[in-house]
Structures are given as C-alpha cells and as structure tokens.
Amino acid sequence: MTATSCTIESPVGPLTITAEDGAVTAVDFGGGGGPRPNTGVLTEAARQLTEYFAGDRREFALPLTPQGTPFRRRVWAAMQAIPYGETRSYGDLARALDSAPRAIGGACGANPIPLIIPCHRVVGAGGALGGFSGGAGCDTKRQLLALERALPPTLSV
After folding, report:
1. Nearest Cα to 130, choosing from 98, 83, 84, 94?
2. Which residues form the Methylated-DNA-[protein]-cysteine S-methyltransferase DNA binding domain (predicted)?
3. Is the Cβ–Cβ distance between 15 and 33 less than 8 Å?
4. Which of 73, 69, 46, 67 is nearest to 57 (CA)?
5. Would you list the DSSP string of 16-61?
6. Which residue in 14, 97, 81 sits closest to 49, CA to CA?
7. Diameter over CA atoms, the chain
8. Rounded alpha-carbon distances, angstroms, from residue 133 to 96, 111, 153
9. DSSP-based three-state secondary structure for 6
10. Which SS3 state, helix, strand or coil, does residue 117 take?
11. What are the tens digits of pLDDT across the range 27-86?
12. Pairing of strands 23-29, 15-20
C-alpha cells in the first residue's frame, strides 16, 4: 500500500503525519503533507495530536509501525511507557534496557514518530535537557515539557 500524509498546524509548527497500511509510520516537523484528511488513521492522529496540544489528551491510542532496528524499537517502547508529565534520563532507560546512555540518545534521535512516541520526555542526568532533533531542537523540547508541566526545575521556560 502507498503511504499517505497530511500536515496539521501545532504550537510547535507544522507537523506532517504519515501513515501506511492503517498505521502511523512518521511524524515530521514541517509541512509537506497533503491537506487534513477526513477519514482513516491520519484523521485520528490529527485529532489526537490536536487534543494533546490543547491539554486534553495525555495518552495516544493509535496503531504505530515505526521502522527501526530491534534495539531502537525496544527503546521506543520504553519511551511510550513514560507517563505524561514525567521524564526519565538517558541513564534510566539505559539501565532498564541493559544498554548505554549514548545508545539510548541515538535511538531517541532516530525516533520516526516523535510526540506520539515521547522522546521529549527523555532528559540528561541531573535534569539536564539533553538533545532534541525535531522542530527548533531544544527549544521545542522545552515547549513540549512545559506543556506537560514536566520541566525539571533547573530548566524552567
């Protein structure tokens, strides 16, 4: 089946959602997708992201098929278990997955479905922000953590 996409506006800029075979495969910062659809998983993803940014959604309920190595898929699954409004450090995830913080950071940076797979909830040791590869980088990460009221005290907006 052919991938389809749509672009929605959000507080962190345009987001392009891509789906294939009834599942979300990517969320990219920036435009480039078609107009907002009126059917299927793209409509549901657009609705849930809009609710998230409005503060009305804390968990996503969407079929996802992120493409990546088995290790990266394990990291992405661990990120999905981080509750809304909370963070975990790269080291926390590394210990849980018997890995290294740098490898966790690499998987975060390769996350094809940011926001829905919440890599923004992964921070550095001692509350340091860490990196973020989407949107305006760390400014976008700060904005997402502020939305969830999950900013470590040393990183207030």
Report:
1. 94
2. 70-149
3. no
4. 46
5. EEEEETTEEEEEEES--SBSPPSSHHHHHHHHHHHHHHTT--SS--
6. 14
7. 47
8. 23, 9, 22
9. strand
10. strand
11. 999 877 767 666 699 999 999 999 999 999 999 999 999 999 999 999 999 999 999 999
12. antiparallel
The one-letter amino acid at 12: V
In the block, residue with structure tokens 């969407």? 62
As a whole number of angstroms, the distance between CA 50 and CA 70 comes to 30
Query: Would you tell me how many other CB atoms lie within 10 Å of the CB of residue 78?
Result: 20
Pairing of strands 4-8, 15-20: antiparallel
3-state DSSP call for residue 114? strand
Tokens representing 60? 């996503």
- pTM here? 0.91
* CB 122 within 8 Å of CB 157: no
Torsion from C-alpha of 153, 154, 155, 156, nearest 10 degrees: 50
Q: Which two tokens stand for residue 91?
A: 């080291």
